[in-house]
Design goal:
This protein is α/β, with parallel strands linked by helices. It is built from eleven helices and 14 strands. The protein has a seven-stranded mixed sheet with strand order 2-3-1-4-7-6-5. A seven-stranded mixed sheet has the order 10-9-8-11-12-14-13, with helices on both faces. Bound molecules: S-adenosylmethionine.
Amino acid sequence: MAGLLLYCRGGFESECAAEIQAHAARLGVAGFVKAKAGSGWVVFETYEADAAAEMHERLSFSELIFARQWFVFTAFLTDLPLTDRVSALLQGAAALPAPPSALFLETPDTNEGKELSGLCRALRKPLEIACGIDTRTSPQTGAGVRLHVCFLSGTAAYVGYALAGNSAAWPMGIPRLKSPRGAPSRSTLKLDEALLHFLMPAERDIYLRPGMRAVDLGAAPGGWTWQLVRRHIHVTAVDNGELDSKLLETGLVAHVRADGFRYRPKEAVDWLVCDIVEQPIRVAELVAHWLAEGVCHHAVFNLKLPMKKRYQEVQRCLTRVDDIVRGAGLDYVMACKQLYHDREEVTVYLRC
Ligand SMILES: C[S@@+](CC[C@H](N)C(=O)[O-])C[C@H]1O[C@@H](n2cnc3c(N)ncnc32)[C@H](O)[C@@H]1O
């Protein structure tokens, strides 16, 4: 038995399933999906044993929008003995392509999953020792084979591996970000996670420099603006709503009460961020035109997805962005992800 296990936000299993099926069809991999609404995970089982491993190598994790994390499973263990789960898990991990240099013990991101977090903590050290993983010498991210165990219950688990360089750097794809003190809204974490997810550390140093200029459309009360100000970036915050007064006191923020769909800065800026709650296609077109017209170089924006056909809607929006930006003769980088802090929405990063 082999396949791919993908974690997603609960309620987005059908989008995650549709997406992995589309990639499998494109890559010519035969298989079928198993997905249960609200479970927070999806399995793509391949008919040929090596096909899942091949797909994990050929498909870049960054291309997956609805999967927060993924791994190749090589065994599905049921009836794990309560007295010695470690030996059974070790046997399940026998088919790994190389000795693992790290271990992620995971569960689906559901209430039932949370109840298994104590078990994961208890098994971590013994399993690391049994597998010969030395966390003092192992590379933390970016290289090697990582052993994954996904517990569905105390006695059932998928076991397998991910290439650390082609998967999320955090267990279950969930970065543990603390809500910063002083930020005007919790949605500040969405932009924080986006900058962490879409940019490499060296890129963050280059692309988010003090003194840069940004526009935040739909800024109030100011959680996204706060993230930029924290990095000493000047922000024009566009919103008819009230902005947190402390942000205005920083001297880095100008509040403009205007319609974000009409506003344009007098000079080009480095960044555009946009969290306006609107039809996703309107937001996608707006941001694409800013890039195509050279009004900004980078953009982070949310596509809100209150509709039924969410996967198709995201594809439609990304295609529209491609039409507009490529139509202007520009080369660009685009990535889209449903981040952990996203709810009924996905986040897009664009760079020209
Ligand atoms: C989800 S909130 C933004 C939250 C903000 N990112 C934060 O972190 O605090 C959406 C905002 O978009 C604003 N908005 C909606 N339509 C707008 C438009 N056409 N132009 C500008 N702002 C708009 C709303 O007033 C609201 O404050």
